[in-house]
Amino acid sequence: MIMEGSEMAADFPLGLGDRGARLWTECVDLWQLTPAHLVLLEEACRIADRLDVLNTMIVRGSEQVNGEVADISGVLAESRQQQGALRTLVAEIRQGQVGFPPAPSSDGEATGVSDLTARIARKQAEG
Q1: Is residue 122 a part of any domain in this protein?
Q2: What does the pLDDT look like over 50-101, one tens digit per residue?
Q3: pLDDT score at 81
Q4: Secondary structure (3-state) at 127
Q5: What is the residue range of 20's domain?
Q6: How far is 7 from 21, CA to CA, in rounded Å?
Q7: Full-model pTM
Q8: How far apart are CA 14 and CA 97, in angstroms?
Q9: Residue 101 belongs to a domain
Q10: Are 34 and 79 in contact (CB under 8 A)?
Q11: Does residue 78 lie within any of the structural domains?
Q12: How many domains are contained in the chain?
């Protein structure tokens, strides 16, 4: 079942911060997502908010207190993991969207399954 933008607005997740709310709003305005991908989008929004919190911890931890800088290596590692998770979720969400063309590959060709099928057929016809 595909939900229209106005229907999704009613399902706006509670507790999102500024960054997560902005991500949610922009994605549901741009894309038509399946219910499963809306769940992934909600998690991506929460991760975006979490990254803001981690960034605040990094900035505060990198300031000198009594001439010493706090060890923020654990926070940096968690931030990197969250960034990777966000990147993966956004890629998965983008692949699951309806009515939006797949992203082009580095060589400029589309990368969806139907595009791959068309490229294989062209190669077979050529050779």
Answers
A1: no
A2: 999 999 999 888 776 677 878 889 999 999 999 999 999 999 988 877 655 5
A3: 97
A4: coil
A5: 5-96
A6: 16
A7: 0.67
A8: 23
A9: no
A10: no
A11: yes
A12: 1
